[in-house]
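[Discussion] Sanity-checking designs against the backbone

I'm trying to build intuition for which residues belong where. Below is a C-alpha cell string of 238 positions. I'd appreciate it if someone posts a full sequence so I can compare it with mine line by line.
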C-alpha cells in the first residue's frame, strides 16, 4: 500500500517505521515546510494519507486531501467543531475519512469498559464522576480527544450527567475533566467515581506512542478501497 504522511513529528516518524515494517511504501511526507506537496503527483498516488498534525492545520489538510482524492486517516484532535463539514464531504462528496480520537487498541477496549461501568453506575446516584488526563507538554489541545470521547460515553449512560467542563464542574450535571501537561507522557486517562464511602476508578496508561502508531497504520489498511465516514467501531466491531 502507498501511504502519505501528513505531520512528521514523533508520531509521524513512528508511523513511518511501522508502515515500512508492515510492507508499505511511504510515497509522500508533508510537514510545515513543504505544504505545496499536497499538489504533487507523489501525494496524489497515495492509497491513504495518515494525518497527525496540529488542531490549527488539520481541517485545511483534510480539504487538501479531499481535493486530491486521497482517503484520510485522521489522528489530530481539537478541530471537532468542523466535523459536520468533513462528514458532508463523505456523504455528498464521495470522500473517505477515518476518524478516531485514539488509535490504540487498548484505549478502544477502555472506551467499551468505560461505557459498561457507566451503565452500572447510573443506578448509584451517591457516586459522582470526574476524570483526569495527563499528556506531554507538546500536546496543544485540552482536554484530549480521548477524554472527550470518554466523557461522551459516560453522558450517554449516566442520566444525571449531560455535559463536561474543563477542570471544574459548573453544575452537578457536569463531568469535571482535569488536564495536566507534563514531561513526555504519552497519555494517561483515569475515570473516578467517588462517594462518601469509597472510590471506584478505571485507568489506561500508555507506555509509548507505538500502540497509537500501529493502530493508525492498521486503520489505513482497513480504509483502503472503502468510501464514506469510518471509525474504530467499523474496524474493530466491538
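Best answer:
Here's mine. Compare freely.
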Amino acid at each position: 500500500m502507498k501511504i502519505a504522511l501528513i505531520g512528521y513529528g514523533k508520531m509521524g516518524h513512528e508511523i513511518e517505521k511501522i508502515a515500512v515494517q508492515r510492507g508499505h511504501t511511504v510515497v509522500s511526507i508533508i510537514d510545515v515546510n513543504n505544504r505545496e506537496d499536497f499538489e504533487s503527483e507523489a501525494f496524489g498516488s497515495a492509497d491513504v494519507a495518515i494525518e497527525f498534525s496540529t488542531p490549527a492545520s488539520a481541517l485545511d489538510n483534510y480539504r487538501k486531501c479531499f481535493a486530491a482524492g486521497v482517503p484520510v486517516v485522521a489522528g489530530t484532535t481539537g478541530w471537532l467543531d468542523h466535523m459536520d463539514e468533513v462528514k458532508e464531504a463523505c456523504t455528498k462528496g464521495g470522500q473517505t475519512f477515518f476518524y478516531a480520537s485514539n488509535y490504540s487498541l487498548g484505549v478502544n477496549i477502555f472506551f467499551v469498559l468505560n461505557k459498561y461501568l457507566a451503565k452500572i453506575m447510573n443506578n448509584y446516584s451517591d457516586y459522582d464522576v470526574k476524570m483526569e488526563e495527563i499528556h506531554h507538554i507538546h500536546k496543544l489541545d485540552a482536554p484530549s480527544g480521548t477524554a472527550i470521547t470518554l466523557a461522551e460515553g459516560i453522558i450517554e449512560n449516566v442520566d444525571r450527567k449531560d455535559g463536561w467542563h474543563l477542570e471544574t464542574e459548573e453544575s452537578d450535571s457536569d463531568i469535571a475533566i482535569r488536564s495536566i501537561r507534563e514531561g513526555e507522557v504519552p497519555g494517561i486517562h483515569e475515570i473516578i467515581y467517588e462517594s462518601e464511602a469509597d472510590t471506584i476508578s478505571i485507568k489506561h496508561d500508555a507506555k509509548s506512542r507505538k500502540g497509537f502508531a500501529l493502530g493508525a497504520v492498521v486503520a489505513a489498511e482497513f480504509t483502503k478501497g472503502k468510501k464514506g465516514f469510518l471509525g474504530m467501531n467499523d474496524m474493530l466491531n466491538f
